[in-house]
Amino acid sequence: MNSLQTNYQALISDENEAPLESVIFHVAAENGKTRWNHVGDLDAFFRRIYTFHQKRGLIGVLVEHAIWVILFMLIAFGFIYCLNCINFNFHEPYSPLYNKTDVLLSDLFIPLSVCAPNHFGFGSWLLVVLATIVVVYRIYMFFCNCYIFKEIQQFYESAMKISKAETQNITWHEVQCRLREVQHEQQMCVHSHDLTELNISHRILRYTNYMVAMVNKNILPLRFHTKYFGEWIYYTSTLDAALHKVLFTHSSSPFGGTGKLREEYKKSISRQEAAADLSKWILYYGVRSALMAPFQISYQVLSFLISYSGFLRYEPGFLAKRRWSHYSRLYLRHFNEMDHELDARLCRAYKPSTEYMKYFNSPLVAQLIKVVSQPIGFVIVFFTAWGLFSERLFTVPYVLLIISVGASTFMSLVSCLSDEYETYNAKELMKRIVAEIHYVPDHFKKAPHTTAVRDEFSHYFQYVVVYLLEELLASLFIPYVLLFHIRPRSLDIVDFLRNFTVEVQGVGDVCSFALMDVSKHGDPQWTGQSLTKADIRNQAEFGKTELSLIHFSLMNPNWEPPPASHAFMEDFKEQVYNAARQQTAANGQAFYSSLNSLSTMGSKYASLVQSVHQSMHEDHASGGFSTSGPHLEKQYMRGLNNAEGPFEVQNSILTSEMDSPSLQTGLNPLEIRAADMSMSALFLHQVHDNYIASSEVGSSGHSAQPQPRNVGNEDSPLLEEMRYNYVQ
Question: Which residues make beta-bridge pairs with 502?
Fold first, then answer.
């Protein structure tokens, strides 16, 4: 990154941009109506609109904030009470309760009115004062949020004409459409007349897009090489919050919390000074985090005990389950992908990912688990049965501890065993995973059966116990990561922000990758040589630009992409359609491989695949796709707040060129869209794999490079290097 000397760019508009205001919004009465005529902080305003929608209204938002306040009070004051007001040593000889015949709960838990004046020391009172200050601040913020989100509710009802009942069951796409209508009527944003879906996403995900791009370009050093565990990826929710504060939201950060990159970061001549300032700020924040670490880790441990004690007691096997890591939520995320859209993809990928990890269960490990778990199970049953006939056994020291710990250990071990009658195909499982997560290194697809791929995939799909341990120890590791890994990369971060920040009229400074312009950030291995001129420094890795463009176009069918991106989308659709038409046999073809992979995802996807196969051989008149019926009604009953895109079929790659009555499969449009994106991802991966294979053959000299078929000027440049695979 040190060699990059290009400057910050601005996308010039004929209109002069008005300065941003510090207020949230101005409300004026006009003709008896409430009018939002100038929203100062549109980023925060749109984020609150999105939060309000996802929480399904004002009650959902306020309940969540109230729970945060109550949980903190429970942890802080409960910890102080436990330190001073509980007779943990009542069974010791020196305790006044030692010789008491009947020990009551009131003897063990001393009333606060008695305990505070007699047992609280200076340290305890200091903790009470600090906790009270924090609680008062959180209560104040709760009432501020009450006021703010009450205004958001009024905006929903009066401006967007969305009632409380509709808020419970409306798609985010519909909210965006209403938001655009309000912009035309009331000019919330004074910088431009129109408000596109991309503008809204840029404001909500301004900083998230930067984080996704920095992970994609490996700017943030989040991979660590350890002596005993090999390569380890460390990224937690606490580290994510710290990096957002360091880079974006704090007044000392490069963005200063305003959504606009500071001037010194935009000029290459001042890159060294900007890097020095950023390094000092990271040093200060890292040292402050180290000083606060004892308090933070104490709070995290107590929060963990309150949140997970019940699971540890009654469902200890949950520790052996898996979940998507915080790092995977950045690595696998598309540019401009909303949280609920990402969650939906990862939820669909959960089952095949779990089955893939079970594929590697070693018979030796299974036997060892059985050898260990069986004696533990016998000990538990032995003591439990004995205690049923002799209750005094439970008063013997450590008996209950043995039963409790043994039961938890037994359940955790047994949950690690897979069904011995189930068989898995690693290659097919990886296809199903790629169909949903979209981003994997090439060697994942070439050797999915190897333990090396399994170990690397486990960084994205980690054990719950690993996730919890990382979160518990985050306060100790964050100062180390900031001071010794992030801080030395200050100059690289400054160069990245300068080179990949553009000013968009009406939006402000955004990450240029988030524009999804294949001419500037496309990769010829995924796009085709004629659609992009980007060098390797400007290319997004792993087809991030192309896949993000396809995803955003499917989620927002009314959005108009840049010219080069529009050409890519049209070429992509044409190539999918031509590849399907040119070959009637499924063996070895990318299109059918993609569809056949979808057929393993369940009966609904299988029916969709079958219908598309039938459409290859039938020339029916276009019949369209029905958006009504029981399936859509069922989706309404479940709630549309988490739905991906609109609930009408628009701009579909599967159906746009293949409309026929055979597409009436019982899938609702939301499921069609998910299948659409999965097929597109698999097809584009096949395109990339064919490009790599043909390049390797050409460079090795074992065979001549195949020549693409010349079909005239109207032929699409996309996939031209691989077209011979479909026509020979």
Answer: 9, 510
